[in-house]
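Researcher: I'd like a structural prediction for the single chain below. Treat it as a standalone chain; there are no partners to consider.
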Amino acid sequence: MNRLYNLLCIFVCLTVTLANVERLYVNDKLIRLEPLNDDHLNYIRALEENENLDFWTEIISADQPVDVHIAEKDFDRYVSEFKQQSLPFQIINDNIQLMIDEEQNALAFDLLSRQLKSRIFGQERADIVGTYASYNDMVTFLQEKATADPSRVKVINIGQTSQGRTINAIQLSYNPSSTRNIWFDCGIHAREWITPATCIWIVDKLISDYANNDATVKSILDYWNVYVAPSLNPDGYEFSRTTGNRLWRKSRNANAGSTCIGVDLNRNYPRAWMTGGASNNPCSDTFAGRSAGSEIETVGVVNFLLSKVGTWDMYMSFHSYGQWWFTPYGYNTSYPADYSKQMSVAQLGANAITAVNNRRYALGTVSRLLYVASGSTVDWAYDVLKCRFSYTIELPPTQAESSTGFVLPPAQAPGVCDETYTGMKVFLDAVKKEVQSSSSG
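Model: Treating it as a single chain, here is the predicted structure.
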């Protein structure tokens, strides 16, 4: 009886919490613009500087559509402009809030079912693997893994946020004599909820597969120390989870001289800062900050990684969405010196993902596949950290599925996490062979 009562209390609390969250996107639209010529592209690029618009996909070329979130109050005005410009468009989501409501309801029932399962099996807390968990729950998960195997697993503090949160990562060190390292990070953009879930999944599966004598995982963990940071932007992530601002992207620091909040942390890294694809407008979603590496979150990560400069063999930053696998460079259209090797091992990983369920990734440099973007982690890791195998992956869905976009339904999260992990195993095995070959050659 007590167990049933507790579960009913949980459900009531969830219902009350959801009812109190603001519904900020009622009747907002997701519009797909279909540029036909350079005039259309120039017009759309000018719109991108408008802080009232939220671009979900990038402006690439006249044959590539662009998806834009438009608030209900601005919709009629922009539709009139599109018609004046003879710019084709279609509405692909007529009410973004309904999609977010569905996500919230799914999350509530998912938590209830996990709580029920934990009580049935006598577990202290519900499992978070494969879910959109809170940052506190992610940190607790990491700490539990470290407590279970303190000689090989550690939680490390790699910095602070503007709101005083600790940015935590987990260190997996199964070979005491290993001096080589690899890095995964997630959640640098707040609204990309599938990415922290993916990092948590990778941690969980690496540990369990090693214990189960998976030959590939044992080879990887016996060679490298593995570092995984599930959220580089916990302030923004928690803001997007708890306030109704589901589509928030940036950090949550105050910007001097502006009422607009936050910095795009993936435009703030100190490599080719503000040389293209970033904004100096604090109200823009791509605001690059006051200066290169100005943000407290950036400083912590940069300092930690530089403390081990020369030891990093792989850097991977997960984003969403689009199904892209990027190499450097983003800040210009040149190819990195290691491009051919970067592509060959990435292709093996992408092929492994495709083999799971036929989901396909496009591979190439950031600037040539999509757009110029300066001050990003992928370029900094390659040029400054001297990490030969440096990447950014944009997880599902594709733009063709972008009626959901950043709001990937919770039911799809485990599948995306699992296929990504499958690809990472094959990819890391290939990177290890390349590193070993270079060392012996």
